[in-house]
Here is the input.
Amino acid sequence: MKKLVVGFVLVLAVLVISAMYKASQADLESAGAANSAAQQKANLAQQTRPHDLQLLKRPAVRAACTKHAEWDMDICQTIDQKKVSIGMTAEQVTLAWGKPEKINTTITANIHREQWVYGEEYLYVQDGVLHSMQTSR
Here is the structure.
């Protein structure tokens, strides 16, 4: 009887290990498919990017977006329309709106914060990234 119980436990252990292996293989295949889809999307974006860059009206924006392949085309189009959005880099903001009339700087132990003044528009750049905007009325 004891041998029968030990044999049953061993068979059960083999079945559990087999099920775990199959589940891990399914997870790997699923992750591979997701990576493949992401790679296909990146390849498509890379193929269409040169054409999309030609649609940009401002030569300076076209040149900057060509130089910075990591910039999303949506950001390039926003810059081309002379608009800014939260999350843009300081370089992108300057390309969209030009050099600010005035920059007020605050430096603390851990943060470098700037207020960029454009007439009645105030942009708040922290560590090189646009974090907030304010309009004076």
The first strand starts at residue 102 and ends at 107.
